[in-house]
Amino acid sequence: MMAEAIDIHSDEMIEAGRVLFAGACDFVMGAAREEQLPPTDLAEIAFAGRSNVGKSSLINALTGRKALARTSNTPGRTREVNFFDLGDKLMIADLPGYGYARASKTSINNWTDLIERYLKGRRPLRRVCLLIDARHGLKDSDRVAMKLMDASAVVYQIVLTKSDKIKDTPRARLIAGIQTELAKHTAAHPDICATSAVKGTGIPELRAELAALALEEKFG
Ligand code: GDP
Question: Is the dihedral of CA 142, 175, 51, 24 positive or negative?
Fold first, then answer.
């Protein structure tokens, strides 16, 4: 099957996404340094975003688990890439949050170093979901992350979180504004996914999109 032949919005892909994310999902390990990154042949999807963007909530909503990805009580504390194996079909990498206002220079440098090495050296990485809080839009720290991904030529897709917190009109305006900015970024995927972990909005569609990437790996 060719990658282009998969219609990610079809009922079949929605069902494939549901099945994939309803299956087993196991914590593999946390890696604080490049040498600790686990070897894998599975297609991999990473989740990145500012501290408190709702990353743990989104991963838990996707996998239908309450506490798979632990919400960090102290923003900026989690300094590891956490790996989860989804039914031996897809690896999920939960990247440490960035943009914490009180983070030290050293911890920012450590974050950049680890993420840069991860992005450059991770062959199975198919896409990064870059989470953006729908109430705040793009921040400068997000733009730094986008530049890192442009430089590594890793495709990233904007996923709005907490979209239950804003009304339709400002949300449409926000999406249009981000799309304009994305056009200037070489590695950005043009589609933006609006989600709410609380209401479940956009979750089946995002599961379908990620399942399509797992299937491409299998058939591509
Ligand atoms: P993380 O630090 O990126 O892992 O963020 P968390 O998942 O811990 O979420 C940060 C805060 O945002 C928590 O108080 C969550 O309850 C809240 N939150 C996360 N997702 C949503 C959502 O979809 N809607 C709303 N209204 N709040 C959310």
Answer: negative
Residues with CB under 6 A from ligand 1: 49, 51-57, 71-72, 97, 161-162, 164-165, 196-198
Which ligand 1 atom sits nearest the alpha carbon of residue 69? 4
Would you tell me how many other CB atoms lie within 10 Å of the CB of residue 101?
9
Domains of the chain: 3-219 (3.40.50.300)
Cα–Cα distances (Å) from 35 to 118, 146, 189, in that order, read 10, 24, 29
From first to last of the 220 residues of the chain, give the pLDDT tens digit: 444 566 777 999 999 999 999 999 999 999 988 899 999 889 999 999 999 999 999 999 999 987 776 654 455 455 789 999 999 999 999 999 998 877 888 888 888 889 999 999 899 999 999 999 999 999 999 999 999 999 999 999 999 999 999 999 999 999 999 999 999 999 999 999 999 999 999 999 999 999 999 887 655 4
Distance of alpha carbon 94 from alpha carbon 82, whole angstroms = 5
Distance 43 CA to ligand 1 centre (A): 26
State the closest ligand 1 atom to the C-alpha of 78, by its place in the atom list counted from 1: 2
91: β partners? 44, 85
